[in-house]
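[INFO] parsing input record for RNA helicase
[DEBUG] input buffer:
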Amino acid sequence: MSKKRKAEETDEMPAFISQANAPRETETNDRKKDKKEKKKNKKKGDTKKSQKPWIPADGDAETKPDDGTPREKPDLEKLNTYELKHKPEGEKKGDKYARQKELRKRKREEKEKFEEYKAEVEGREYVPDDAKKRERKEKKERKNAAKKGQPGLSKEEKKKLSEERKEKKRAARKEAKKAEKKAAAAAAAANGEEEEVEEVVMSDAVETTKVVEPAVEDKMDVDSDGSSSDSSDSESEDEKPAAKKSKANGVTNGKSKRPAEPESDSSDSSESDKEAAKAPKSNGSTAPTTANGTASPIPADSTTISSYMTTHSIKITDPKAPDTLHSNLILSFSDLPTVDKAHLAPFSAFKTPTPIQAASWSYLLAGRDLIGVAETGSGKTMAFAYPAVQYLTQLPKSERNPKKTGAKVVIVSPTRELAMQIYEQVELLTKAAGLKDAATCIYGGVPKDPQRDSLSKALVIVATPGRLNDFLEEGAANISQARYVVLDEADRMLDKGFEDAIKTILGATPVTPKRQTLMFTATWPQSVRQLASTFMTTPIRVNINSPEDGDLRANTRIAQTVEVLADGRIKESRLLNVINAHYRTSPTAKSDRILVFALYKKEAARLENFLRAKGIKVGGIHGDLNQHTRTTTLAEFKAGRTPVLVATDVAARGLDIPNVKLVINVTFPLTIEDYVHRIGRTGRAGELGKAVTFFTDHDKAHSGSLINVLKAAKQDVPEELMKFGTTVKKKEHASYGAFYRDTSDAKTATKIKFDD
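[DEBUG] output buffer:
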């Protein structure tokens, strides 16, 4: 390309390029002019910026620019807390800092007022935050001054000082041990039980001594009347202290309860003496000391225990000691062995333990397997929940990490509502024991993901069998280290419906001797006893007001009424009449709750719609409803906002609902055990209750069992019911029907093994 053409191209630039470059050139020129003007103003000493005259826009004539005139500051003291939290329109930076400062001041004043009120309620002196800060600062200054006062200490001198401090602490501990031992001796003397306790005088210097175990011929022979005589007349004076020490270590009746150590220092000797002095006296009980390391409570005397057991119809069977007449009963909450008395906070509303709690706690705290049979509403949940939490508190911290070791306690219940109720009680105990988020509740009908996350953090799992089995198959639940397993409503859990699921759950836990297994129920039929024995090791059986032959017995505080109806079609009208009659006659009708039981889900829905159409505020619970609806309905019923609840047998077991004064069985259940559980929703915790049952010709197969239950509870049996007969139908086997023969007592076959 020639030079001439290049020149032409450069001279003749397109129009759109020149137009695009033109504004940019004008902008740069304006900036240069502004800079020059600023420089001139600086040289002249004029600090004011050149301002263009303000021209009001359309519709904005009243607004004025900020001309630097001082504005009126808002009166912050007149503003409330809500106004201080929110930024006002047009707020300046300085006003913002002042507003935030005033807000912090208000919050500090409110906090101080609350702390002062709290201190007044608790009956202590109120210390302001400023005084606390000043005290902490002074303490820190004293500590720093003490450090600066000894700047040049050598290692030997520091070691010497630490040894002196340790020696002072050791001496203080020795004095405390002496005082405790004297107090224990005084308590034993006050109870009329003399005990030989030797005062061990500790020297300031640590000296090792040898405890000489006396020979067999030098041990003391104890006569039947309690007097002792030495087998050797020529016993040396040096051997007498050794004999006394061996006696303090547990040598009684010529047998040593624990082996004597060949060598021990004086501090070990004092500790053993202290333990011997603090050991509770036996009153003929077979309950061992607690396995979790806590001291066993001193039980009441045998006369008090015998009277208590007779009054409450308590029968305790221990396979290890079948001839024992008396047992360890904990008759007061203060006698419970506990690390901290704060653990007993959930029992503050109760005066004394219930009979099932008093009879079972000492054995459960000792680590024994147990079967508890007690009437409905007798406090069975706390009977197994408190020892479970105490077992957790005694575990070392390394074993209280569920992410590494998994859950330590598993509680299984047949229904979702009962599982949630148990979880609430367990959570109260874990919080009182300082175990945060230690429990979780696993049940069906809700999403799995939140439950799966909670399993990795829980030491206690309260679950229904189906959902827990699902998580075990997934590997999301780890119960391989769960050594405390509870089956609540055990007769239902071991029934053919849940038998396979329970076997799977127990198979995922440690083997029987390493696992403590508990079963609690209100009914204990013969059909499940043999199966239960395969899961337990020599279990103790505690019966509260329950016959030994396994016959059912209802709560005696419930007034049972049976109405024999010739026509089943009048059940709905009779139901309405019974409800209206109760509201007319009951003095506490406003707070009373009524529970209506139906046999089938469709029947429950029909009865619910019928009562609602008659103007009664009613709710319903059955298997066709989703879990959210069931939970909400039950909460409304418990709170009293829905006074009448229609339910199937999902609400028949375990639920503790306050103020249920009337239970109506519109349709008789399939088993007599379910009848006892149904009416057990009323008359709980010592209250009185009433149960009305509609009986028709279709239910005549249960007439004999129902008559026996009524007679055992000392209730009137209507003549119309007696016409159906008193024959009790034989329990049918799942495979062999009524012709099944129980061979549990038959002689077992001998296994013959041939040599290869």
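[INFO] Residues 57 and 63 are 9 Å apart (CA to CA).
[INFO] shutting down worker
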